[in-house]
Amino acid sequence: MTSRLRQGLLGAAFILVGVVLTFGAFRFRPDNDILASALVLAWGAVLHGGTYLLPASVTVPYDPLGHPALHVLGIVANAIYLGAAAFAIWTFIRWVIRRP
Questions:
Q1: How far is residue 18's CA from residue 79's CA, in Å, rounded to a whole number?
Q2: How many CB atoms are located within 10 Å of the residue 51 CB?
Q3: How far apart, in whole angstroms, are the C-alpha atoms of residue 82 and residue 56?
Q4: Count of the separate structural domains present in the chain
Q5: How far is Cα 17 from Cα 36, in angstroms, rounded to an integer?
Q6: N or C: which end of the chain has fewer CB within 10 A?
Q7: What is the pTM assigned to this prediction?
Q8: What is the extent of the structural domain holding 31?
Q9: Containing H/E element for 91?
């Protein structure tokens, strides 16, 4: 297996971890969860920014909740965010184990 393929598969695996953590955080979270609050902030930024970027003819019919495509984009943004956090933790653990 080449190094680029291994890096690509590792990145895809951590994005999948991010997807699982995103759905887990929203499904099984308690009311005062810090992780869910951080996810809602990222999701809200995507919805708020996307509402201003899309034309009004697209966003007005979905005004109370936001366009469905923006919700999908918010989930993807959260998955990347949590995947990057999981990768950072994994890298730190590997560094601690290999440290002399």
A1: 4
A2: 17
A3: 31
A4: 1
A5: 16
A6: C
A7: 0.64
A8: 3-98
A9: helix 68-98
Tell me how far apart the alpha carbons of residues 2 and 89 are, in angstroms, rounded to a whole number.
24
Q: Give the per-residue pLDDT at 29.
A: 62
Residues of the chain with pLDDT under 50: none
CA atoms within 13 A on the CB side of 77: 18
| pLDDT at residue number 42 | 73
Decide if 63 contacts 50 (C-beta within 8 A): no
Q: Which of 52, 24, 25 is nearest to 39 (CA)?
A: 25
How many whole angstroms from its chain centre is CA 21?
8
50: nearest Cα among 74, 29, 84 = 74
SS3 content of the chain, % helix, strand, coil (to 5): 85, 0, 15
